Structures are given as C-alpha cells and as structure tokens.
C-alpha cells in the first residue's frame, strides 16, 4: 500500500512539474505575443497619423496575434486545471500517509 502511495505521489509530482513547465512556456509565448501586439498597435497609430502602411498586413498581424493568444489562454487554462488536480491528489496522498502514520502509532502503543 505504501509503495503504491509513493508511486502515486511521484506520478502526481511529475504531473505538477510538467504542468509548471507548460505554464512557463505559455508565459514566454504570451511575452512574444505582447510584443507583436505592441507592433500592431504602433502600425495602427501610424495609419491613423496618415503614414502609409499596408492595412492588410496590420489586420493579418492582429488576427494572428489574437489567434495565438486564444491558443495560449486555452493551454494555460488546461495547465491550471492539471496543477489543481495534482494538488488535490497530493493532498489526498498526504491525508492517507497521515492516517497510515496514526495507525502505526496506535499499533506501536499496543505492543
């Protein structure tokens, strides 16, 4: 039982680490997209100021940034759900180990 619990704990820890890694990658992607968004904003301001810029390219950049941002948000939500699930599982494992320790103490007192 203890080996299975330890295995489950290791599995949950690995899932949490994987989710944290995914979150870091998503943060990097968000940073890149924020840069692209700023570029698009500057192009938009230039258009409003009367400077010539390809409106189709601006629209394409904005659409591309929005599409990627949506993908990142979806991935981040998934990672957060994974982390939450991992935390709940680790809490359950901790409670099982705590109960096992109490049982062992009671048995030791009986002896």
UniProtKB/TrEMBL annotation:
GO terms for cellular component: centrosome; ciliary basal body; early endosome; midbody; recycling endosome. Residues 9-43 form a coiled coil. It comes from the Eukaryota. GO terms for biological process: positive regulation of cilium assembly; positive regulation of protein localization to cilium; regulation of cytokinesis. InterPro entries: ENTR1. Transmembrane segments: none annotated. Keywords: Coiled coil. The keyword Coiled coil applies. Belongs to the ENTR1 family. This is Endosome-associated-trafficking regulator 1. It comes from Mesembrinibis cayennensis. The gene is Sdccag3_1.
